[in-house]
Amino acid sequence: MKSLTDFAFNEEYKRVKRLGDRLAEVESLIDWEAFRSIMGGMYDNRSERGGRPNIDEVVMVKLLVLQQWHGLSDPELEKQVADRISFRKFLGFPEDIPDYSTVWYFRDRLA
């Protein structure tokens, strides 16, 4: 089913891309995978008792970038990511969109 969902998102995004999407332009300028090795050790929910799975580090970094570039609060970021196809494409169409408290905790861990 994921492939059908991906297909639908990509078809919907084609119109946005034709109209111009600056986030798509930025995507090719930054090596986002480099953040994975940097953030991997800092962002880990595992403990002796378990813990919920981590959200992809690259997605989390991109969320913080979107938040800064667009001047969004944590709750507004969550809302905009759920609503804007260009934001979701920039994030790689993640299966789960992190809620605002997850973004807050991630930023807090980085600090």
Keywords:
single chain; 111 residues; mainly alpha; 65% helix; 7 helices
> Roughly how many Å apart are the termini?
38 Å
Largest sheet: none
The radius of gyration over CA amounts to 15 Å
Instruction: Name the structural class.
Output: mainly alpha
State the shape. globular
Topology pattern, helix = H, strand = E: HHHHHHH
Mean residue pLDDT = 85
Number of extended strands: 0
Strand content: under 5%
SS element count, helices: 7
Uncertain spans, ≥5 residues at pLDDT below 50?
none
Helix coverage percent of residues?
A: 55-70%
- How many domains is the backbone divided into? 1
What does this structure look like?
Helix 5 (74-83) packs across helix 7 (100-110). Helix content is 65%, strand content 0%. The protein has helices spanning 2-19, 22-27, 34-40, 57-70, 74-83, 85-90, 100-110. The chain has 111 residues and is an all-alpha fold. The protein starts with a helix and ends with a helix. The mean pLDDT is 85. It has one domain. It is built from seven helices and no strands.
Briefly characterize the structure.
With 111 residues, the protein is mostly helical. It is built from seven helices and no strands. Helix 5 (74-83) packs across helix 7 (100-110).
